[in-house]
Structure formats: structure tokens, C-alpha cells
Amino acid sequence: MAINTNHPFEELDGRRCAVVERNVSPARVEFIRYILEGNGYTVVVAPSPPPKDAPAAAPAEGEGTLEPVPAPPATFTVGVTDVTFNTVNAIFGRLLRSPEGRVVTMAYWLQKEAVPNDGVPYFETMRQR
Predict the structure, then answer these.
(1) Where are the domains of the chain?
(2) Three-state secondary structure string covering 13-67
(3) β-pairing, 43-47 with 15-24?
(4) d(CA 32, CA 45)
(5) Closest CA to 76 of 12, 10, 26, 32
(6) Are 59 and 124 in contact (CB under 8 A)?
């Protein structure tokens, strides 16, 4: 258990890992793996547990039988074996690089940009607006 919520870690597939993101789609897993493995981290992916507050099946009208509840989408927890890793520190500290060699920005990490714009630090873009 982490001291605070900003640096979570847990055991994934029997290995102690720093949690990078939880409940992510398979496409997001591949994007995160692409960046982190390119930076030399060992990535561990484990299926996320189902939500604890899953809705119960409701009985059909006029019948005493239960309707099937659709299964929740498959999500995963992504972690790295380096327990000192912190996503926010790595991004804003400009420690992560894309495989093309450019600095990974927050917009690129969140997949809002197709290519990282590492020419101007994030705080400089706020002054230009």
C-alpha cells in the first residue's frame, strides 16, 4: 500500500510493481507499453478485478426469473517493476521519451496529440494564451 494516493504500488502477477494506470482498455495498454518499454522499464499487465458495486440482475416484469447482466468490458492494470516510478514526476520532469526520441508531454501521454510537442514546456504554452 502506498503512503499516499500519488504513488500507488501493488503486486501484479506475483511481482511488486508501481501502478501506472488502472482500468485501461487493451488499446491503451499497448500505447503505454510502447512508451515505457522504449524507456527501459519492465511493464507488467494484469486484468483489473471486476467492480465491487456491480448491479444485481433485475427480475423480468411478470416473471420471477432474473435477466442476465452484461459482462463489464475487459480492463487492465498496468504497472512497472521499478517501484520508484511515478507517472506524473516522469512526465513533468521530462524523463520519458517517445521511441522517436522526443520528450513525452502530458497531451501525448493522454493521447490528445499524435506526436509529442517537446519544443515548448507546458508552462510556456499557458503564457502564450
Answers:
(1) 9-51+74-128
(2) CCEEEEEEEEEECHHHHHHHHHHHHHCCCCEEEEECCCCCCCCCCCECCCCCCEC
(3) unpaired
(4) 10
(5) 26
(6) no
pTM reported for the whole predicted model:
0.72
**Is 96:103 a contact under the CB 8 Å cutoff?**
yes
**Looking up cell 416484469, which residue turns up?**
61
Quick one: cell of 27? 488499446
What does the pLDDT profile of the chain (129 residues) look like in tens digits? 555 667 788 888 899 999 999 999 999 999 999 999 999 999 999 998 876 665 555 555 655 566 676 666 789 999 999 999 999 999 989 899 988 888 898 889 998 888 777 666 656 666 655
Length of the chain: 129
> Alpha carbon of 127 to those of 94, 110, 115: distances in Å?
19, 22, 22
